[in-house]
Each structure stands twice: as C-alpha cells, then as structure tokens.
Amino acid sequence: MTPKQIVAELDKYIIGQADAKRAVAVAVRNRWRRQQLPETMRNDVSPKNIIMIGPTGVGKTEIARRLAGLTGAPFIKVEATKYTEVGYHGRDVESMIRDLLDSSINLVREEMTETVKASAEKQVEERILDYLLPKNESSSGFGLSNSDDSAEKRDRTREKFREQLRKGELEDRMLEISLEERSTVVGVLGQAGMEMDVEFQNMFEKMLPSKRETRRMSVADARKVLLGQEAEKLIDKEKIHRTAIERVEQTGIVFVDEIDKVAGTEKQNGPDVSRQGVQRDLLPIVEGSTVITKYGPVKTDHILFIAAGAFHSSKPSDLMPELQGRFPIRVELQDLTKDDFVRILKEPQNALTKQTIALLETEGLNVEFTDDAIDAMAQIAFDVNRTVQNIGARRLYTIIERVFETISFDAPDLAEKHVKITAHYVRERLSDVVKDEDLSKFIL
Length: 444
Prior knowledge:
By secondary structure, the chain is of the alpha/beta class. It folds into 3 domains: 3-108 and 243-332, Rossmann fold; 117-234, no CATH class; 338-435, Helicase, Ruva Protein, domain 3 (Orthogonal Bundle). The protein is 55% helix and 13% strand. The protein contains 21 helices and 11 strands. The strands form 4 sheets. It has a 5-stranded parallel β-sheet with strand order 2-5-8-1-9, with helices on both faces. β6 and β7 form a beta hairpin. α2 (18-36) runs parallel beside α4 and α6 packs across α11 (219-234). The protein is globular, with a radius of gyration of 29 Å. It starts with a helix and ends with a helix.
C-alpha cells in the first residue's frame, strides 16, 4: 500500500492526528522500499523507529493496532512497565521478540493451512465417515460371497452417509473423537515456565508425556478439530518456523506503550530494575541484536519499533541518550477538540453511536441520535476533560454509558421500541454530574 492509501485506511477508524498517520505510513512503505534494493545496500538500511508523544486517549495505540492489521505484518503490543532488568523476577525485554515470533508463526500457519485446506477437508470427510460407520470386524468371514455382500452393503451405506454429510444433514450427530494433547511447560510450571532458559524449556517439553482422551462432540465441532489435525499433517513445520522468523526479521512491528513510565534518572538509592534497567536492556534489541528462541535465532536489526507515551511527569529527553537516538522520528499527537469528539461519535466505521444502535437493535429497539445530541455529548466530554482530567476519547465511553444507563437496563421490557436521543435528554442525564466537579471525578 502507498502512504496515501495507508492514511486513507487509518482515517476510517481514527479521527485527526494527521502527522502521526503520515509518519507510520512512510515508515511502513520504507519496509517495502528496502526490499526492492540490491542486497549489498539492503542490509545497511535500518528502520526509522518512531516515538509518539501525546496524552492518553488520542489514538496512539489505535494507530499502531490498525496499522498492523493493514499490513498483515507480525505485530505485538507490549507495555514497557511489565519488564524488569535481566536477573530479577519478572519478564525480560527479550521475551517481547519471542512473543512477536509466536504471533508470526500463527500468521504463517493460518496462511499455509489455507493452501492445504482442500486436501485436508477430503481427509476430514473420510475420517468422519469412519467414525459414523466403524469397521465391522466380523464382516471378514470365511464365506466369500457373504463377505462380498457385506462389503457392498457397507460401501452403499458409506456413500449414503457421504451424501447426507455434504448436504449438512448430520451436523448434530454425536461422535466420539480421540484427541492427543501435549502438556506445555508454562501450563505445568506456571510463571516459572515462562522465565526458563530456552534450551532447558525445549528439553523439558520433550520429557512431558502427551495425554490422550476421548471426547464426545457433534459432527460440526469434530470437523473443526479434525481439520486442524489433518492440516497439521500436511504442512511443513520447519518451513513455518523458517518463514515466520524471516517475516519477523524483515517486517515485524513492536509497539512499546508506556515508554514514558521507564524514563527518568536514577535519583533514589540502589538500582532501579524496572526503569533504567529496562532501558539498558531495550537498547541492544532496538539497536540490533540476536535473540535466541526455541525456533531458532532472530535478528532484530530490521524490526520496526514504535514507542508511545503521554510524558506527563517526564520528558523524552529523560530517556537514555543512546535510546533516544534509536527513535529518530518523533511525532506529537494533539489534544482532541470538541469538533474531534463530534467526528469520533459520527464518522469512524464502528463509531460508538453505531455500536450502541447495533447493540440495542438486538433487543428490537430502534435508537436515533439527533445532531444536537451528538453535539451536546461532545461538548460535555470536552468540558469534563478540560476541568477534571484529560483522558481523551475514552471520556466518550463514560458519557455514552451514562446517557444509556436507564435505556439499556429497561430495553427488554420497553413497549415503545423507538428511542430518540436529543440534546435535552443528554443534558438531563448528565446535569448532576457536570454540575458537581467533585462527583464527576468518580463517575466520569
């Protein structure tokens, strides 16, 4: 996709923040441009990592999330605050690359499963017929003619079942399916399994026995389970792992949220394992290093890192100078205005008003918003953000919930199935809260 096309797609879901959208669109396009270069130059072109600065609720996370969906690239969102320095209890920053690889493996497996789906479906049909018509051991008797008759009768019955299966007439028929499940280290050892050394984890997994159990399920449910089993037999696991590692190395995107929470100097006594320590560990990964995973080594030189933070109590300059240098593109996201709130309520594909209408339609309730009602909600959200605490577009969630509190509760029992939301109704529902600032701190 061209940068203009990427921005146009992001505009469907996110209002405003043109600078941030342009920056991420160019960064993603540069991944494609790099792939077109000769190999001698390609390795020297490093990704232009981005740091997004702006208050909460203005669209930082949403931009990154939608971007990953558009590109189909391996993507992971992590919070910087969840990591600690290597050697301390908690997750070390290298685990984000392992999580990114897991995400990539799932993507590649889905794609490869799609390519073998037709062959797998044929095998699934045969297996379901085997479950529906178990082999009759007594049919292989000594009388040849009887055996032939039995085999012919069996074939006719099987074809009849096949016909019914294809027409969908046997979807509710119950089957007993034998399933094999392999225990995972994380499942057995909990958090300790996540912190275990990769090689030790591999060895431990091989030692764990696999469980075999028989489950009773409908043909419809059995088809999904068997399709997964048959597809697994047809796809090359080694190829999945190789392709997934290559995808991560060339097109992977890591979104590091709350980067501002690990900014700051060492003012207190003793090491700060969750701030300076995390920055020090993050530096080589962003700079380019090799992370050992159970599927093989992953180089991080060309992974795109997008960091984001509100930077209320700290500044980007509080980050380590070396880490700042690894995020050359800085984008400031703007506070949302009243007009932005109006657009957020009306324009995006799955705007809050559209979600509310769809949810209440399930109760047979027809909800209609007047323009002045949307205007009133936007104005109240803007005012409360300005006077109490600025939480951006998230304020609209609480506004909508407060306006629809009674309607949502009474919806199943309402005789009148048409509800018109006007500015007067909005102000009436929110008047007490807006008047009392102390109260609004708790309710809105």
